[in-house]
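Slide 14.
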Amino acid sequence: MNKKLSIGEKAAYGLGAVGKDMVYMLSASYILYYYQDIMGVSAWAMGVILLVARVFDAFNDPIMGVLVAKTKTRFGKFRPWLLIGTVTNAVILYLMFAAPPSLSGSGLIAYAAVFYILWGVTYTMMDIPYWSMIPAFTEGGRERENLSALARSCAGVGSALITIVTVMAVAAIGKMAAGAGAADTEIERLGFRYFALIVSAIFILFIGITCMKIKEKSTVDMETVSVKDMFKALIQNDQAMATVITIVLVNIAVYTTSNLVIYFFKYDFGGESWQSAYTVFNTFGGGVQILSMMLFFPLLRKAFSTMKIFYICFISAIVGYAVLLSITFTDMQNVWFLLVPGFFIFAAVGILNVLTTVFLANTVDYGELKNDRRDESVIFSMQTFVVKLASGIAAMVASVCLTVFRISSDEEAAVSVTQSSVLGLRMTMTILPIIVLIAGVLAFKKKYILNDEKLAEISEKLEAKKKQA
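Slide 15: predicted structure.
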């Protein structure tokens, strides 16, 4: 029997999750803004880069899984990749946000493409072994479940930290680096460069602590999943297909808004103090999402089935987007007014993240009954795949919006954003998500049948089959 994990070991593993999701959120939330709005790369070019890179990264995950599974060293199979991936990813992250100002045109586009794709490859290099190593140093059952939950919570903290501090930190660091009288774009350019350096250093430090404190106590056969396995499981499991389609549509709606909200505050709602307003909004949203997962969902579950909660969340998100759109057409310029629709949207998103994971887990039992095969690892590998795919599609949608409505900084003037541009931005970040969410709920309602009664029936049939075997 393995010795129980100490508090120090649990804390060390959690720190690794904080560091890696700080890095992920910095890239996911600000790479489009950095290259398009600050460095001047066309939004269309960035959209293509982000979409291609995310799709490539999604297909790259299974390949990395195979490489990790075949690794054998005296330090284990997971920690070497974890450390190598972290150091290389941290270096790439810094270089990605340190584009030479002398570059322009095709040279800058090539620079962005190369480093963003390399960033995705190196992130996968450390992310796969980080989550896959849990069975190698924990006992099964409650200890493993608790550590996984702790790491997911710590990952949420890392994401929230970046969401909250980035814009204000970039402004403060950029002013110190650029000096008095520097242009806003120069301040932001230098701010992102040095902020990325700080985040990279924290990332290496936190994962270094993880690698030093966590010892692989057993040899684990890591099950790898190919892209072919994923699509085969989808074709043969209509409930998994329905859930995956819903996850894709929900995430396209959410990521489209998250990609555009910084432009909304900078060019439409925030005015001269847009950084502080943006920070207040994100701080509130991050807190509501965490509360919704940890508090609101358990409370709602006592009164409603998961299916009813699901539809409540969709209605909440749609109402939130509608109220947000209404507020943008009023004279209200105080960020506190936005917190009302923000509550409905962020709370719904937090609970939907929990529910879609639950629904995906339910499809495993359904698939076992239907196909006599339990595709647990395949189904959950699919979740990462489709979220990355959705984020790439959303980045492309956001880029098309920025291109069509010509939203960007202008070095000659303060900004080059007209009233029609602002209107297009508002419509894209509110009405489009509403349409996508409605499509998602209709697709789910039509195809998904695994309510509590159906799940109980499936469980009884599986139990009966086991007894007959």
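Speaker note: The chain is about 80% helix and 0% strand.
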